[in-house]
Structure prediction request, 387 residues.
Amino acid sequence: MQNIKGIIKNLGVQCLEQEIREYALEIGFDDVGFTTADPFPQLTEALEERKEGYSWISNGLLQLAHVADPKFVLPAARSIVVLIYDYYKQGYPQEFEGRIGKSYQSRLYYGKNRLFGNRLRLFRDYLESKGMEVGVRPAMAERQAAARAGLGYFGCNTFIYSPGRGSYIGIVAMAVSGELEPTTAKIERTCLDDCSRCVDACPTGALYAPYKMDPFRCIAFNSYGAGNFPGAPEDILPEIRPKMKGWIYGCDHCQDACPHNQARLKQKLVPDAFLHEIVPKFDLPILLNMDDRYFFETVQQLMYGYIWEKKFIQRNAAIALGNSGDEAAIGPLSKALQDQQELVRRYSAWALGRIGGKKGKAALEKTLAGERESAVADEIKAALENC
Ligand code: SF4
Ligand code: SF4
Prediction:
């Protein structure tokens, strides 16, 4: 027998789910789905199994179990509304290729006075106007919710693939108190047979098996998490640093290698004017020696709320300059050996050791005599051995 919603639909009367969907598309989202507010037991199991690598979640605002239970964000939750936003609508500057991940360039900020944040606020207000309570982050299993709502499938690289869009998508899941008809999980498509391109493309072995990723080896995670997130390693492992090459924020290798993303990567799109304008401001020597004002006014605009201290971007810029092997970086790195932050001095020493040569050696020797922090002095001595 047809349920009441089916009968209403056949009579041409819009149901609430349809209204929600139309509103979301109207304000700029690209797909919408619904699922129940039941927990995600598979996520709990996976996080428990690898809890060492995810201790930074437990040590932060969240508990592992909470991430998998929508009722943590909203005790009255009965459904989850999932929104998909395609962030590959404008062209990304070539200069940021291999340097800043596309998702960070796309500025999917939740904050006030941000386009994406305002869009979310509008949508949340809309749901509340329909009489529903709404709960969002910090703890929502967004990828799992998207898969259960039938909006996409997991690739072996752990990203969700939206049909026709690939994995360059932002996902937002909102727990709501209303009972909404779940969208059917109709997407069966999984990874191509025998494909391991994402695993093969990962430079650090962080993606060590299909669907398994070690965040502590991941370039993206290290670029914003190391030393910054509670529970994450204080330092970027020495063997990971050379593999970061020019990345200073994020990493796209495991997505860019995927056959399902190739059509998107070949699109001819209108350039993102904002990004093209800020390219010269993200020059590595400038980032390495920037002041607080420059960081907050210029650089923080792309930091997605993950990085609030400039020293982490300075550290990443030092690594990238060291990896460039370019002697022109010796001047800026020598200057950074005098930075107030011990972290910046240490990584600048590492970078000078990586570039090596007479000039790099001279800069390191000159600084060693006056360096009072033993951790920095040790890094300088280690760098001198490489020169
Ligand atoms: S983001 Fe980069 S480092 Fe991290 S798993 Fe993907 S390819 Fe590996
Ligand atoms: S690269 Fe291959 S294995 Fe990896 S997500 Fe894409 S289709 Fe799946």
Observations:
- The two ends are 79 Å apart (CA to CA).
